[in-house]
Amino acid sequence: MIKTDSQSLIRNLRSLTGRPPESASPRQWLRAMAGLVREHIGAHWADGARARRHAGERRVYYLSMEFLPGRLLMQTLRSFGLYESCRRTLADYGLDLEVVAELEVDPALGNGGLGRLAACLLDSMANLGLPAYGYGMRYDCGLFEQEIEDGWQVERPDTWLRHGNPWEVPRADLVHPVGFGGRVVDHGCAKLPRHEWLPEDEILAVAHDMPVLGYQSERLNTLRLWSPSSFGELDLRSFNDGEHVGAFARRNAIESLSQVLYPGDASPAGRELRFKQEYFFVSASVQDILRRFRRLGRPLDRLPDEIVIQINDTHPSLAIVELLRLLVDRHHLDWEQAWQLTRQSFAYTNHTLMPEALETWPLGYFEKLLPRHLELIYGINDWLLRDVGSRRLNDGGLIRRMSLIDEDGDRRVRMAHLAIAGSRRVNGVSKIHTELMQRTTFADFAALYPGKIVNITNGISFRRWLLDANPDLVELLRSRIGDGWLREPDRLAALAPHADDPAFRAAFRAIKHRNKLRLAELIARDCGIPVDAGSLFDVHIKRIHEYKRQLLKLLHVVALYDRLRREPDPRRGARTVVFAGKAAPNYVMAKLILKLIHQVAWRVNTDPAVAGRLRMAFIPDYGVRKAQVIIPAADLSEQISTAGREASGTGNMKLALNGALTIGTLDGANIEIREAVGAENFFAFGATIDEVAALRAQGYDPWRIYHGDAEARAVLDLIASGHFSPSTPDLFRPVVDALTSGGDPYLVLADFSAYLRCQERVEADFADVEQWTRRAILNTAGTATFSSDHAVRRYAELVWNTGLSDGRAKQVAAAE
Ligand code: 26Q
Q: Hey, whose CA ends up nearest to atom 1 of ligand 1?
């Protein structure tokens, strides 16, 4: 068997790269291994599609602007039992499989939690045998590559397709036209209107399929990414007339659609491009979903029995209007029936309540680019507002508040309202987040549609975040509790009693230490900073955003630094603070915070007074790949958002699963993590959501803290003095101003002293090695409920009413 696999590998190498094994480069070997895996996948893919068609299950379509699937090679080699043969074959030619595998690119088609959640849910759907399809956009460049120059973030295009994508199957046979602009004509009569949209422009969307594998490859699903086709788009006449650039104008315009994820939205052109991207990928997806449904030969009124379309935040919410349009204009259903079918086919997940992140689009965009959709949106709005009116809920402002159209200012469509009106269910992503949705932002909708807004706390794939990321720990778990938890996550709880076994603790600690050495190597390589694996590894890794409060962590570091400078205290334990994360390119404050992180790191790492006690590193270009190295090495997980701001968080779950203790506010899923792992194994601090509200109501004044708390003042003064930016002393003035005269909107100073005190407890507790290890193990054991398998079961039960009718889903739902 192994021999034949090895032969197949070499055959792939020759046919895909034209090289004999003696002279192939590592990248060519990588290509060959991917080819070998693809042969296995190919056979499975066809089988899976056939099996699904027989089963007649409802299909789940997951639409998302972002996907962060991570690398696939190692996982697939293991699933198909190819790991050993590849390792040996490569070794025969003097290569190390692990080193070659590092060359695989990590598709960064997303920017954070929402994109990684999409990937974890797809993983779990495949694992649980649900027939599911992911639909998204195939960006030519993913989110930018982050480089650091002189402490500043510099964005470079992330050319992830440079060496081709060995996993994708381009489907030239699967294309859908997507229209823009033009006008609407009415062919019907007064009684029976028949609208037809005559777009001015049409762009073809071409499918590219990526495999999504279940654990041990039993189920293979598909992630279908759309890219615009500019094939043949060349104005040959102008080219031959010498217009060598102009002849490509249209091709460039088409290709710009999928160039980047989140094109800068500071300019009107950037915002419009983003709007077009959203429509482009959802239109192609909805057409594709209808195409597949039509193939079943069922009548259209069966649509909601056969499919459900889950939209990941509002970014794909135009899909609702698109389906309505196709049902009415193409398939000639009457409006009311088409709308009922549409509403039963969609479900919407909300990921944020922050007003600035709730999408709205100016009516002008619709008038210009999607005129028919605008008519339909007015129709939906009439229907919604009639519904509101008929239930006598109107309290005066209600209609205005609930309308799909925000009449203030430049008149915009509120995409969240559209998504709620057009969905069978709406879900939040942690208990507290869902409660806030019901109580605050969407309270009117909760009153109008009781029971429609439900909670499904996020989850993470244990295959990715333990099996792949922390193989040594998995081996240890296998030796004690087996690996049944990879299929039934609850079994991880069986680990808890082992926390009392000193031998197990020693083994657990040894693995953590090895993982820390691995991270130390990464830090040495990426940042040129030597760090001590014996110190407390304290990690804050996520998008740079004021609400996530990298600043609070920084103030803590500066306070520590200042204390150590004043009175070097040899009893103090050593700490290594690790930051990683990207700042949105035009988020000026986030970029300044990132610079401040570097400047503080520079002082801390070069000041002999704190040497050996405190170190700081910023790891550039954070993504799934780096997360897989950082997370298994963490001792302390920083989850310190202003209460009420973090919808859920999923990094918090990954870190706890890998045996880090959390220091966190009572926000998002932190609350549930604390319950699950035990309050004594979690460092909670800071204002609660109610306290935040009370503080604001009283009129929060950060100056009072500045004047009342000597340590806070010292820290702010030190930053304002230019100590961290001697050549430009005023550089960080805006940061200090935001925290003082700017009103400190994220309550950094309000939580500062509680945070410092809590960190002192962390430090003292970390010194008790045995107890700390015990608590780390209980974190791993306690996180079983945060498997994305559980989340998918809840979706199946509460939202999709699909497949998983083996009673287990019901048990899970009942237990929660
Ligand atoms: C909105 C309007 C205009 C332009 C861009 C956006 C936009 C784009 C991306 C708004 C939000 C996002 C991404 C949000 C995100 O990643 N949210 C995170 O989702 C995770 C999964 O549910 C949660 O765990 C995190 O708490 C949440 O921040």
A: 357
Q: What is the pLDDT of residues 59-99, one digit of tens each?
A: 999 999 999 999 999 989 988 899 999 999 999 999 999 99
**Overall size of the chain counted in residues:** 816
CA of 313 to the centre of ligand 1 (A): 8
Q: Rg (Cα) of the chain, in Å, rounded?
A: 27
- Residue bearing the bigger pLDDT, 684 or 194: 684
CA 330 to ligand 1 center in whole angstroms: 34
User: Whose CA is closest to atom 5 on ligand 1?
Assistant: 357
Q: In 3-state terms, what secondary structure has residue 761?
A: helix
- Residues carrying an active site annotation: 351, 542-543, 548, 650, 654
In this prediction the pTM is 0.95
646 CA distance to ligand 1 middle (Å): 10
Where does the chain hold its CATH 3.40.50.2000 domain(s)? 56-71+106-457+801-815, 486-693+751-786
* Coil vs helix vs strand at 731: coil
Tokens found for residue 747:
């309550």
- In this structure, are strands 183-186 and 195-198 parallel, antiparallel, or unpaired? antiparallel
Q: Summarize pLDDT for 148-194 with one digit per residue, the tens.
A: 999 999 999 999 999 999 999 999 999 999 999 999 998 877 777 78
What does 330-363 look like in DSSP terms, one character per residue? IT---HHHHHHHHHHHEEEE-----GGGS-EEEH
- Tell me 585's DSSP state: T
> What lines the ligand 1 site, CB under 6 Å?
112-114, 117, 351-352, 357, 359, 429, 458, 646-650, 668
Output the CA 21–ligand 1 centroid distance in Å.
45
Over residues 352-391, the pLDDT tens digits come to 999 988 999 999 999 999 999 999 999 999 999 998 888 7
What pLDDT, in 10s, does the model give residues 327-348? 999 999 999 999 999 999 999 9
For residue 521, the CA-to-ligand 1 centroid distance in Å is 32
Q: How buried is 17 (Cβ within 10 angstroms: 0-12 exposed, 13-18 middle, 19+ buried)?
A: middle
Mean pLDDT over 123-137 rounds to 94
Among 313, 318, 437, 670, name the best residue to mutate to test ligand 1's pocket (greatest count of ligand atoms within 8 A of Cβ): 313
Domain 56-71+106-457+801-815 - what CATH class? alpha beta
N- to C-terminal Cα separation, the chain: 46
Residue of minimum CA distance from atom 14 in ligand 1: 114
Tokens 């709007």 locate to: 275
393 — pLDDT class (breaks 50, 70, 90): low
Mutate to test the pocket of ligand 1, among 352, 436, 622 (most ligand atoms within 8 A of CB): 352
Residue 725: half-sphere exposure toward Cβ, Cα within 13 Å: 21
| Ligand 1 atom showing the smallest separation from residue 111 Cα | 16
Are the CB atoms for 197 and 329 separated by under 8 Å?
A: yes
As a CATH number, domain 486-693+751-786 is 3.40.50.2000
What pLDDT is recorded for position 812? 40
Extended strands (E) in 238-389: 307-312, 346-349, 360-362
Task: Please work out, in degrees rounded to the nearest 5, the angle formed at the alpha carbon of residue 167 by the alpha carbons of 164 and 173.
Answer: 90
**What's the confidence (pLDDT) of residue 253?**
87
